Amino acid sequence: MTIPHPPRAAKKPSTRIFHDDVVVENYQWMRNENDPDVLEHVRAENAWFEQNTAHLADLRARLVSEFAGYTKETDVSVPRRIGDYWYWTRTWEGKAYPALFRCAVEHPAVRPQVMARPYGEPAAGAEPAAGGEPVVDGEPAAGGDSVPETGVYYGNVLAEGQDFFAVGARAISPDGRLLALAVDTSGNEYFTLRISEIDSGEVVEEKLENIGYGLVFSADGRVVFYTRMDDAWRTYQVWAHRIGEDPANDRLLFEEKDELFSLAIGRSRDGQWLMVHSESRTTTEVHLFSTVDPERYFTVCERSADLDYSVEVAGDGLFIIHNRDNIGFDLAWAPVAPSTPDEWVKIDGAGDGERFTGMSAFRDFAVLAYRSGGQMRLRAYPRVAGAGSGAVAGVEPTEPTGVTATEPITPNDTETHVAAASGWGTPVVIPAEELSTITLWGNANWDAREVNFMTESLLTPDSFHSYSIDTGEVTTLKVTEVPGYDRGKYVQYWAWARATDGTEIPLTIAHRADLDRQGKNPGLIEGYGSYEISNDPWFVTSNISLLERGVVLAVAHIRGGGEMGRAWYDQGKLLAKRNTFTDFVDSARYLVDIGLVDADRLAAEGGSAGGLLMGAATNLAPELFRVVHARVPFVDALTTILDPSLPLTVGEWEEWGNPVESAEVYHYMKSYSPTENVRAVEYPAILASTSVNDIRVSFTEPTKWIQVLRDYATNDEVKRPILQYTELAGGHAGGSGRYRRWENRARQLAFILDQIGVD
């Protein structure tokens, strides 16, 4: 049956009053996620979308086929060592999820050669055969290599019968016997803990539900540390669960009571410490719990307003990256004990335009991750022989309090710790491709003699490398195979757009090498610009389909992100947030002004806070874009931030400001919040993509926004439609499994391409 008009929700006026500002809202009732009328409306929006894009069915099918063609579906990852085993993942044609395998380490320096091989998993719901060898009809899978491998877990088996499946965390016990998985089968990012015995495949227990991110085993492998979230989806507790016992007997190790702070947990590389980072947007406090005896713990440095620091355990000392004296952060050395910034010994400091972001310590060297000139970099520091042993420092026990970690702890030898600060040699920059995104991977072992990292860019597929501390050489272990892709056909480069206030805004641009600059090309510009998150370029196979069609790709590195350092972030937050939106508009105009993109064929795309960017930029310059795609968009920003009971809201006040208490913040946010500023003009064609189970940005935000747009925008419903599509089984990242992701992306890109005149 043909639907004659777009879905229109009932107007149910409600009044919002803050700071003497009276606002009448017609669609605030739609913020109730559990209202059956809202869910029915979402289904109607999906039907309207399908009807209005039915003519794109062939293009969508071709795009999915292209994505598959650019993917080596049956593949294997580079093995990574964890303890006494090598681990790798396998994927197979026709299967949505990977599986994890392993073999014993014969020599730590000799990585096994594993090959892609045909699919052979247990039948649905079955456990692996003895030793974990995947079987088909009772026989081992054929082909591949001769490395004896054990199946650790099979994603396709675990996902059987589920509309959604994702692993939020994974940990392997120190003795290699047990696997702990945090499994999400709805997309809401609440997890069930699944513990299994690797060699037999036996499920040991699956009792703990609704846990958060992060899993760490105790040193003896008998306890799993995990997190829980409060009603606002804030990670606020760390618990210890003894395997095999009733979860009701689990012990609370730490609770963060300040609503501005949330927790993140991890395990030190030497295996001795459970690291608990308590973080707000501007302030950090780090606690270390012994994995041998969690009643031995201490706070590295008591929280102090605007002191942002991170800790990396380095055996006989701590690396601390902090901002007390340097907006770009300093690298310092401290004892494995409570300390203050006055006691931290500076090793290195970020220069102008740099930002130190993280440290990875090993027994004999350490690697600093940092940004310089907008690019990612790695710097290796060798440990000087005789200056520091790298041995694990001992600590004295303290009396536990159960919910805090502020008791003192005494190092064995403070003088040794301080002296060790001079025990790090001259750093060496690890070479990597320019314009690439760099990610450390597979570096679990304290005694490693190499550091593994991955590079990628808009044009370079995922490439896995290893840097040897002994030789100083970088070895490329694997470049992900992309069938039918010829990198030489395209070019990528940085360009600089001038913002309204004169600031130079960097863009990463890629397009066909034979493209002309006569102002006739279609283009797609993407942006984010929040939380100091650097919107670095990633290699995505779906982009090849755009490049092949002559689309210019651009990533705008706007203020509010972290690309150019902490100051870059500070200039795009709180009462400077509008810089983020004007930077994006100016970057888009730059592409048109230099003749790279046709003024009538420019598309824009962004997700989450980048979805807020889409709504705000579209309100500022609706004439600039032909089509806008807002993914899981934070478009009802002011209404959300005004309600402290909603997930994540209180912790966001240091990013956006607190409009509940501050009239200045309230009016400033009201001046840019997308839903508040829709005008009676022609807008671009708009697609809002969202998911019912998104816990981070409620699907009701874009649902409300679309209704407001339809109230005011003067668009032709056919030529410039305003559409919404909602995943009914998915979360903040959409649906799960690569085939569903391909279908979702094809749905989105077909809409965009159609609007910019590309088939």
Characterization of this structure:
- 18% of the residues lie in helices and 30% in strands.
- The protein has 759 residues and is α+β, with helices and mostly antiparallel strands.
- Among the domains are: 39-69 and 484-755, Alpha/Beta hydrolase fold, catalytic domain (Rossmann fold), CATH 3.40.50.1820; 72-161, no CATH class.
- It has an 8-stranded mixed beta sheet, with helices on both faces. Strands 3, 4, 5, 6 and 9 form a 5-stranded antiparallel beta sheet that branches.
- The protein is globular and about 70 Å long.
- The two termini are 28 Å apart.
- The model is unreliable at 121-144 and 392-420 (pLDDT under 50).
Structural class designation: alpha+beta
- Order of strands across the widest beta sheet? 34-35-37-36-38-39-40-41
Shape: globular
Mean pLDDT comes to 91
CATH topology label of the domain at 39-69 and 484-755? Rossmann fold
Strand proportion, as a percent range, falls in 25-35%
Q: What's the helix count?
A: 13
Second rung of CATH, namely the architecture of the domain at 39-69 and 484-755: 3-Layer(aba) Sandwich
Tell me the helix content. Answer: 10-25%
CATH superfamily of the domain at 39-69 and 484-755: Alpha/Beta hydrolase fold, catalytic domain
CATH first level of the domain at 39-69 and 484-755: which class?
A: Alpha Beta
What's the β-strand tally?
41
Uncertain spans, ≥5 residues at pLDDT below 50? 121-144, 392-420
The major sheet is characterized as: 8 strands, mixed
Rg calculated over all Cα atoms: 26 Å
Cα(first) to Cα(last) distance is 28 Å
